[in-house]
Amino acid sequence: ASRIPGPLYDRMDIIELGSYTLDEKLNIASKHLVKKQLEKHGIKSSQLKFTKSGLNELIDGYTREAGVRNLERNIATICRKVAKLIVSDDDFTRYTVKPDNLEELLGPRKHSKDNAAKEDTIGLVNGLAWTSVGGELLPIEVAVMAGTGKIQLTGSLGDVMKESANAAMTCIRTRATSLGISPKFYEKYDIHLHAPEGAVPKDGPSAGIAMATAITSALCGIPIRHDVAMTGEITLQGRVLPIGGLKEKSMAAFKNGIKTVIIPADNVSDLAEVDQVVKENVEFIPVKRIDSVLENALKFMPRPMPQEAPIIQA
After folding, report:
1. Dihedral of CA 303/304/306/311: which sign?
2. Which residue in the list 25, 202, 247, 249 is annotated as catalytic?
């Protein structure tokens, strides 16, 4: 789109084709792809059955794509292996594809599951990211160490994301007293922010509130709820600005067992596009300021201290 001249682009109707969600891929596979490949390989539906959980594992563990081409290729591979069984095994009656036997059909799982935290942890927050193949959980870690006020950002962060991290840091510094943090923490401590997986490039402003929450948690010594995820851009004054890709991000939260998702108030209208199964199982909390984010994400709120306070509160 960037190479289309402005006057021509302005006269076009833009149709955006997003990636399929997990539910959409499951329906396409069960209603169309499986039937197509069974017929193509001369296998009766009574001889080969794909369970719903088997298809889910096939989609999530063996294909990481926006469409369904590789999914169909994997279904075809399974059909060929079962066809061989049919003609070579005289006692063959029926084969059922389940998560337990996918490894013997296709080999080890090719894509690992997202690493959602299993317990409330200080300095570890569940962010949400949009990718070309759907939404993903984006954990962000922050560590505080004795030092000279340096900020270190790692995890293959792009320029926009680095700027967002600095904005989050400034936002929290302006609220230091009300959060019970010593105003001089910036002179005596180093802060290291990391976004695993380190080799995967990441960019964009939508992890702003997640980074601000992780920084606050690390400085105050307060755990972050592990069943909460969030997405939203942060400003220096603590305002939460809207983001894109809410449909895909919410599906990623649902897949990983997240119960609460914090979103910008200006994104409430986008909830109409979110899958019904996600809305039934995930609570969405719209926020306008970082203060509301902290109230919903931290295990408990820090006590304001007008005087100098220790960096870590018990």
Report:
1. positive
2. 249
The rounded distance, in Å, linking the Cα atoms of 128 and 246 is: 9
CB distance 193 to 153 below 8 Å: yes
Of residues 206, 217, 247, 255, which has the active-site annotation? 206
| Per-residue pLDDT tens over the stretch 5-64 | 989 988 999 887 777 888 889 999 999 999 999 999 999 999 999 999 999 999 988 988
Q: What is the pLDDT of residues 267-293, one digit of tens each?
A: 999 999 888 888 999 999 999 999 999
Q: Where are the beta strands (DSSP E) in 86-186?
A: 95-97, 121-122, 124-131, 134-146, 151-154
206 labelled catalytic:
yes
The amino acid at 31: K
pTM: 0.79
Tracing tokens 């904005």 back to the chain, one arrives at 167
Using CB atoms within 10 A of its CB, is residue 17 exposed (0-12), middle (13-18) or buried (19+)? exposed
* Tokens found for residue 134: 């759907």
CA 88 – CA 76 distance, rounded (Å):
18
User: Active-site residue 249, yes or no?
Assistant: yes
Separation of alpha carbons 107 and 41, rounded Å: 21
| The residue to which tokens 């922010």 are assigned | 193
Token pair in block for residue 139: 């954990």
pLDDT of residue 224: 96
Report the SS3 class of residue 313: coil
Is the model more confident about 119 or about 289? 289
Give CA–CA dist 130/211, Å, rounded. Answer: 16
Instruction: Tell me what pLDDT residue 314 has.
Output: 46
